[in-house]
Predict the 3D structure of the following.
Amino acid sequence: QVQLVESGGGLVHAGASLRLSCAASGRTFSIYTMGWFRQAPGREREFVAAIGWSVTMSTYTDSVKGRFTISRDNAKNTVYLQMNSLKPEDTAVYYCAAGNRYTTAQALFNFWGQGTQVTVSS
């Protein structure tokens, strides 16, 4: 089992930055692929970014490329999502997830956090 707790969400203006953190506890964190997903009101949850255990692999959804950066610190059992140049359409609940294989498919992520709200005003 892996427990995940997100933090760092908030209310910001368009163009601002936020850094989300996801602290993991339980089984060895470093072996997992970590991902960030988001769910906007009235929409399905969607993939945002993923990073492999070796940190050399990362994938982003097209809408955040060049603005968001996923990173991880295995010594701290923490994964981050640095979000720059935020837009109102980035408003959503952001979820951290852990999976056993490198993937962007949320069905293949085994463990999920409770989510943190990000609201971007125009």
In short: The first strand starts at residue 2 and ends at 7. The radius of gyration is 13 Å. The mean pLDDT is 94.
